[in-house]
Amino acid sequence: MLNSPLGWLRIVGFLEGCSYLLLFGITMPLKYMYDLAKPNYILGMLHGFLFILYIALVLWVAYYNKWSKTKTFWALLASLIPFGTFYADKKLFRVTRS
What we know:
The chain is an all-alpha fold and 98 residues long. Helices cover 76% and strands 0% of the residues.
């Protein structure tokens, strides 16, 4: 899986999606309900790094695999929607075997 740009994209997409859900589902409530800002700060920085890495990898894979602009757009948009990277992995990033 790590021997191709698409494999790297799938792994980073999964990690970015998990960090997004953890950020909004756990650390944001901790910050605003219990005044615990440190977990949100740490996970927020990790999520930011993974988000930028995801965007860069989508652009790299789109160029490498000659994706259409539409497919590239949907892959980029997936990073902004909760569960979007998981959906993109299932619908956009899977290579069909013949």
